[in-house]
Predict the structure.
Amino acid sequence: MSAKRIDVVAIGEPMVEFNQTRGDNPHHYLFGYGGDTSNMVIAAARLGARAAYVTRVGGDPFGQRLLELWRSEGVETRGIGIDAEAPTGVYFVSHGPSGHEFSYLRAGSAASRMRPEDLPFDLIRDSRVLHASGISQAISASACDAVSAAIAAARGAGAKISYDTNLRLKLWPLARARAVIKASLELCDWALPSLDDAKLLFERDDEDAVIDACHRAGAPLVVLRCGAGGCVVSDGRRRERIAAHRVEVVDATGAGDCFDGAFAVRILAGDDPFAAARYANAAAALATTGYGAVAPLPRPPAVEALLAEPG
């Protein structure tokens, strides 16, 4: 990878996490870290990328702990603003028969106060890949404008745009989400929707129909993440399903974000999209084997070992 440019810059909302454990005490929560784009950029850094994050955190202990986390993970922090007048976002993860569920304390968060005029455009233009998500755009109108400005700057400087639809209807109405997300698909170099998101966005149930809809919206490369069903990769000419790895799942929080980070790393390393997705699929599987969005994010030897196991 280049020694001169930042490999991956992500923009969005970080959060601190309280994750319910499944032991004898259902009231026990592990402290951790989350936020989809933060998870993505940490995953990319652990897998070898020169990475940086663009956001705002509160001038509170949670914001300070996030800064310490990014520095400890080797994520560049000069694109992070500190907002003394707004809190760092918090979320809680609980686990039940239908999987993991989220509760958020994020209204008025520091990240939601991002504005285009506050962006570190030198850092963004120095990136090889800029990653954003639907959540980055949904947290506020000003944050949505900031993401648009970041995408324009990155594209103008020749960077690739990685985009995860990450639909959260608690943050914005479906009609607005569809309009903004479809406009973003037209600007991205690769789209990383989950199957559940894409079904709602495009009103399609069939995987092929969903992928076709993403291509029609303008995404040249689509990686449809299907959870336990693995993923489907389409470059508009070739389409391939990649099976999921069998692992002992503890907590799926952040697995899709890990996939996004790993995919970008391998594309930058020169893999074709199908090889990159196979690597990302393995990384995402490993991310489900521990509690929290960040703690179980894997490093290259673990991913390579899983890929080497007989299918």
Observations:
- The mean pLDDT is 93.
- The chain has eleven helices and 14 strands.
